[in-house]
Amino acid sequence: MSLERAHERLFDIARLMAPRPGRLELATRLAVICALTVLVVEIYQTPDAALTVYVAFFFNRDDRAFSAILSVVLVALITVIVGFIVLVAMIVINDPMWRVISMTVFSIAILFVSSASKLRPIGGIIALIVGYALDLLGITPLADGELATRSLLYAWLFVGIPAGVSMIVNLLIAPPPRRLAERGIADGLELSAAMLRTPDESTRSRFREHLREGPAENQKLLGLADREKTSTPDDIVALKQAIDSTILLMSAIDVMDRRPEGQIALPIADYLARTLREMSSILRAGEYPIRIDWNPPESDRALMPLETDVLGDIKGAIIHFAEAPSPAHRVKESKKEGGGFFVADAFTNPDYIRYALKATAAAMFCYFLYSLLDWPGIHTAFITCYIVSLGTTAETVEKLTLRILGCLVGAAAGYGTMIFLVPHLTSITGLMVVVFAGALASGYVSAGSERISYAGFQMAFAFFLCVIQGPSPAFDLSTARDRVIGILLGNVVAYLLFTDLWPVSVGKRIDPAIAALLRRLATLMTADKDARHTLASQAQSELAEIETDIDLAAYEPSTIRPNARWLAARRKAADEIGALGSPLLLCAGEPPTSSAQIANRLEALAGRFAIAEIPRSARGPTERSTSPLFPMIDEGLRRLEEASI
């Protein structure tokens, strides 16, 4: 690795580990929940205390509303699943062959449903609980139905205890979603203020990252706040308008940053930056700014047409920042179509059933291995296969390093704790403090971006398995050794199966995603004014996912990885679409004829990515628009149309 590449890696790691708003707060809340969960399981002497504590990591998110919803939904799902497994156990407990067959069939069925349905976002925790329940079924002595039933009922407590503790703690100290939405809007304003000065590459990178993901996340949080019914409808509407205004404001600044002729005169830029920071401080105080004055200083030079246009959009965004429309003029949001429980291609796309088969095969291999070796200490390999299984080869390869690194760090911390601290623990309070510290460090890592969060989960998994060994503090190094070996074994087995058996390339979903994004931008050009901001934020979020998939493709083996030319063309297309997003929002619908023609060209480009063909009639220049943004749009569309896709 070159020195420059090593420096980039170190800078990237430092950026991923850097504090962000709410990160330490979430980590601290996780640590409190884990410590209290240890207290409960030690008092009631429930089995597998380490795994029970670890499950808390799956129940908690930044805000209290989603965390509470997640806890309730998962408890309900696991109640049904464990109840069904109990019924199965009553039939097959005395027959080893049928017990193995039932474990395999049930695993495949649950994994398929969790990956091909609306349960996909919580598929990981469902797979973990199913794996735990099946593991209990597999290690229960034959002909002991009472013990099997009791063990499976303990599997419910395995979820119920951390879910109950999480709900109580979240309701008491977790921030409401409205508060997080206000913070998110304030972050956008502060980044916009920084961009109006002399931005460096770090500021520009954080600004565009927030433009991609921030508005869509804020809209979700405000939707949760609306469901909580803890804010008045007028406040919700006003904050929705604030999110829309922030999207418009950031899009205008993005255009300004990309075009030299759009640079705003320095006195006006200073005034805007100061105003935006004042608005941000109001939001951070729990309010939202209204009736904002507009008194910029006079410029010492004549403004360029693009500069005037951009400044007009910024003015409109600031003056009407949180100005809620009157009830008579509010547009009723259209409800999204449910689309059914399963995804559209659940029963036609073989990838879902193949995923279920691969994950089950990895888990059952580990089950047979530790059974034949008579080495029950490494049974964590079985559960690990359910935790680490991912849909595509690229995700599997990328996350493998994070998992192994997280496991080794967590195991090292666990061993150090067992050697130097656990022998001196004399009460449950001491164990709670140790768990709090380990959960705090692991939670801080897991609360970061997806590029590093997997390492935090594995750190917690290995640390808890080492430190929490039973109903009281214990320091059996062989137990910790076996559990860590099981984790590493499960990682390796899952990696080998997911990269060699029916490997799924992330590249196959890039072109359809680009086509869908272009169609959304086409819809944006002809949509009603009130719907444009939502469409723009959705488009930016989809673009972020496409860019992530393009980066992930580099991790795939050469046998399935798209060639370098193909990836470079898609990366170039994503960059061009990213440059188009802001000007398209600013000039959508004005004039209607030009907007419709631009929409037709975007639709044609979408067809090109979808079927590798573009209708010739849709190519070529669009009717000239008076908007100074038109040259940017026309130039970007021409580059996309002429590109070799």
Explain how this protein is built:
α2 packs antiparallel against α3, α2 (23-44) runs antiparallel to α16 and α15 (393-420) packs parallel to α17 (450-467). The protein is built from 23 helices and no strands. The chain is an all-alpha fold and 645 residues long. It is globular and about 85 Å long.
Secondary structural class = mainly alpha
Described by the principal axes of the CA atoms, the overall outline is: globular
Rg measurement, Å: 27 Å
SS elements, strand count = 0
Strand proportion: under 5%
Ends apart, CA distance between termini: 31 Å
Short synopsis of the structure:
The protein has 645 residues and is mainly alpha-helical. It contains 23 helices and no strands.
Q: What is the strand and helix layout of this fold?
A:
Elements: H1 3-17, H2 23-44, H3 49-59, H4 64-92, H5 96-115, H6 123-139, H7 145-173, H8 177-196, H9 201-228, H10 233-258, H11 266-284, H12 305-319, H13 351-372, H14 380-388, H15 393-420, H16 428-446, H17 450-467, H18 477-500, H19 510-526, H20 529-553, H21 564-587, H22 592-611, H23 630-642
Helix pairs in contact: 2-3, 2-7, 2-16, 3-7, 3-17, 4-5, 4-6, 4-7, 5-6, 5-13, 6-7, 6-14, 8-9, 8-10, 8-11, 9-10, 9-20, 10-12, 10-20, 10-21, 13-14, 13-18, 14-18, 15-17, 15-18, 16-17, 17-18, 19-20, 19-21, 19-22, 20-21, 21-23, 22-23
Question: Which properties best describe this structure?
Answer:
mainly alpha, 23 helices, 0% strand
